[in-house]
Each structure stands twice: as structure tokens, then as C-alpha cells.
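SAMPLE LOG
Freezer: B-3
Tube label: C17
Construct: single chain, 360 aa
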Amino acid sequence: MTVAEREDIRGTAHGQAPVPLSALDLVTVGSGSSAAAALRTSVALSRLAESRGYHRHWVAEHHSMPGVASSSPAVILAHLAAHTDRIRLGSGGVMLPNHAPLAIAEQFGTLEALAPGRVDLGLGRAPGTDGGTAAALRGAARPDRGGDDFPRQLAELTRFLDDDFPDGHPYARVHAVPGPVQGPTGRPPLWLLGSSGFSARLAGELGLPFAFAHHFSAANTVPALDLYRESFRPSAVLDAPYALIGVGVLAADDAEQARRQAMTGALSMLRLRTGRPGLIPTPEEAAAYDYSPAEREFVDGWLRNVVHGSPEDVRKGLDALVARTGADELMLTSNAHGGDARLRSYELVADVYGLPGAAG
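STRUCTURE (predicted):
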């Protein structure tokens, strides 16, 4: 059986969902709350997603953002692995230019040992932060490492994961542990993440699965997916393209409540884009904010790409998105002020599609 035939990449659509559904988690921290509470919500989300038939739960790497507590995906994933049994866990993604490839190979080798056959390694080429923070992450020893170096870093990481540097290579006697040097072992599937065409083309040329950030780069979604499919070359990993898209989703019991919750994420993004990052505001704060005409235009544009409303509204929006993009999987990110609202959104989506199980 090839990797392409296994469910480590190609998931199964449950209920009436048009494609497999998954969860993308930024571990958001709301005003008046804490990182500890946000991490408890992440555990609850992982367990809810597992019980309701979501295929995977990914955690995204971000830095120096007060409203996001996901600066260390590998640490969070180890914690989630201890609280779940079946759901796939992964990075959406690790920002590879911030790290030495050997360090990532060892972190995810450890995760694979903790949760065999359940770990995905999604990789991005952006820093996941601002330039100053990226420089601090990378340190004086490698200040110029950036997205342009990504293909070389990816190749190096792959060799560490497979323990197959050729004789004579400077790293031929360097081994990532846990890893193959200790004996036969599993290996997390690699995914490339992107919000433009660079990683789409690279993923296609390498025959890797591709994840596109539709939730913050919606205008580029169809062109990037087209480029991925056009560039795709069958590999030992996949015999045909497989693309998921991250999509902002906020389902609530009624459309008005959903918009109030979605506005908290929209205001948070507005503040981030204008250099004022902070904790996720409350619905009351978002409703009372005095938006300038330019800010209102930004928020309205942002909300047009968040599928929000009643459960049936969300179902129609997601079905239309799959039809328009041909995505093989949807990865839902529900960003709101409170953990209860986020969990309720995933539960309602599972209900409206008739996914198995019951949230508990």
C-alpha cells in the first residue's frame, strides 16, 4: 500500500461533508483570559474534533502576537497527543526559516515516537511574525536565513528525517534522534504551506501535499491551486495532487451571534495589520469600536472571506467554496474571543454535516 492510499494524507469525508474536515488552531487568547485558558481550549478542541470525525488538528506557529499562544507547535502537539487517541496532529505550520532543520527533524521524530502514525509536518517559508522578531528568532549566527533559502532547508530536513545524507557530506554522520538510525520507524508526512505561488509550485514539483492559506489570502487561492495542480509530478508520496485550504469559519446558533463573534477576529486582524497587535477583543469591544471609513472597508473585506452565520449558512458557504476551488480538504479555523464560541462553532459544523459521534 502506498502512502497515497493511506489516510495519513487523504482523509475520509464523513456525513454529508463534501470533503474531509479538519481544524486549524491558533490557540487564540481573548481579552481578560490567559494563555493557560487558551491551551485548555485547544485540548478540548482536539478531543471534540476527534469525537466528531474531523480528520486532523493542526497548530500554527506565530511569534510576538499577544492574541496568539502558539509559538511552540511541537510542545503543544505533544500535549494534545497525550489527550487524544486517533486524530492526526500536526503543524500548520512550522516556519522553517526560523529553525535549524536538524532541530525540527528531532522535534517531529519525537512526536512521531509519542503518537506513531498520527503526526503531520507542515512547513512554511514565512517567519510567522514581523522582521524584528524573525531576526531575534534566528540569532546572529544566521541572520540572513529567509524564504529564498527554503528549498535548500527543505532538502536538508528531508535528509535528516530519512537519515540518508550521502557519504562525504558534512552531515553524513549526524543523525536526527529519534529517527531511522535507531531502527525502522515511521516518518511524518511533509506538507508545504503557502499563501502565494512559490510553495504551490514547489509542492507540485516535489509531489507533496499542499495547504493554502485561503483564510488570509483568498484572492490567491484559485491561482495557487491551479499552479500546484499544473506543476504536480507523481512521487513516492502522492500519485495525484492533494490540496487542502484553510478557511475562516464561525458558526453560531443564529446569524447575528455569529457576526458578533466574527467581528472580534476581524478587529484583531485590523489591529495586527496596522501595527497594534493585542489580545482578541470581546464582542462588546468590537461592536463599540469607532471604525474609520478605511478600517470599515478592511473589516468588511475580511468578513467576506470568513464563512459565518447559522449552521445552514455555513454549510452553504463551505459547499460553495469546495465547488469553486476543488479543494480536497477543508481546514477550519474559528477565531473568536472566547473558547466556548470557538468550540461551539466546530460542534455546529459537525452537526449540520451529520458527522459521527456527539460532542461531549
